[in-house]
Amino acid sequence: EKGGWSSFMAKEISEEPDAIANTLLGRVHDGTVSLSELDPLGADTLAGIERIIVIACGTAAYAGMLGAYAIEKWARVPVDVQLSHEFRYREPVIGDRTLVVSISQSGETMDTLMAVKYAREAGARTLSICNTQGATIPRESDAVLYTHAGPEVAVASTKAFVAQVTALYLLGLQLASIRGSLSPELIAEQVAELAAVPAKLSEVLQSGETISQLARWMADTRSVLFLGRHVGYPVALEGALKLKELAYIHAEGFAAGELKHGPIALIEPGQIVFVVVPSPRDPLSLHPKVVSNIQEIRARGARVIAIAEEGDAAVLPYADEVIRIPLAAPLFEPLLSVVPLHIFGMELAAAKGLDVDQPRNLAKSVTVE
Ligand code: F6R
């Protein structure tokens, strides 16, 4: 039940820190990861995996994109993310050294189920990341790693998303440990980062009022753009999807580096653009590049809302609003920066008087192809 919240979605956003903490529970100890759920796949098989293909739809696919950055970096295995409904029609190159990881909150999405069956018949190993105990997709897979977000009722996925990312990061660290691609010290460092996320996320939830104010100001907006780079890119896509499905506003997410290859032509005075800003401490040095993107769009009249790390002063001269997130290592920032966008989508829909739990034309699980 909603338990005093205005909607299931509001309740589920408030549960995002717990969704992460519960997905970690019993799987991390003293700086190590142990996923006994992967046993059916066999450690030798996992050590010999040459390629990972992640299949999912919608928000789950964006979680998959984040997982791909982490798994490639930590386990040094190539990872592709493919939409379930596109996957089998491209005649994918699959063998017994391919691990196909499906992600589905409901575990019933027909497109993803059909993709899993296709992968299994083609000889791949299959792992399901799923939030619903005993659902069809986990039953059709060789192994299952459950996310422990608890039942998600609102049509738009929120807490399941952060739990999916958490499960993928655990998978990346477990693979890195099996394959020896990360030292135990580095694994322990990532585990500590992951374990610190729920408390940081609780801080982010405190900024809810600022975001709902922003949303009320923007209730008449017809178009919103979202920019992000590296792990900020899937966050931008997720922010845009939420706005489409909940507030029926045209929204698009772009990789910030693509701006000058086309999308910058969309910028006209008053265009609202959310920018997910990487940390200035980021070893990849993406921060100045994104700040320069902000300058470019601001010079063309965009209204910029930056989601930036606490203390990052470089964005201040160019942003109309700054939403702050606590310090975290780059791969963990998306778990913090995505939540203001979940709140924004919900609040904008509410400001328009829409039903945030049951957007038009959508169903919680899509059981037809
Ligand atoms: C967006 C949303 C959808 C689902 C997608 C996959 O907020 O909820 O995009 O993420 O339909 O659903 P599952 O994870 O159940 O396979």
From TrEMBL:
Keyword Transferase annotated: yes
Record-annotated active site: K364
Name of this chain's protein: Glutamine--fructose-6-phosphate aminotransferase [isomerizing]
Alphabetical keyword list: Aminotransferase, Cytoplasm, Glutamine amidotransferase, Repeat, Transferase
GO molecular function: carbohydrate derivative binding; glutamine-fructose-6-phosphate transaminase (isomerizing) activity
Known role: Catalyzes the first step in hexosamine metabolism, converting fructose-6P into glucosamine-6P using glutamine as a nitrogen source.
Domain SIS span(s) in chain numbering: 42-181, 214-359
Primary subcellular site in the record, as a coarse category: cytoplasm
EC numbers for this chain: 2.6.1.16
Recorded GO CC terms: cytosol
Subcellular location as annotated: Cytoplasm
GO biological process: carbohydrate metabolic process; fructose 6-phosphate metabolic process; protein N-linked glycosylation; UDP-N-acetylglucosamine metabolic process
UniProt entry tagged with the keyword Mitochondrion: no
Taxonomic source organism: Diaminobutyricimonas aerilata
Record text on subunit structure and interactions: Homodimer.
Catalytic activity: D-fructose 6-phosphate + L-glutamine = D-glucosamine 6-phosphate + L-glutamate
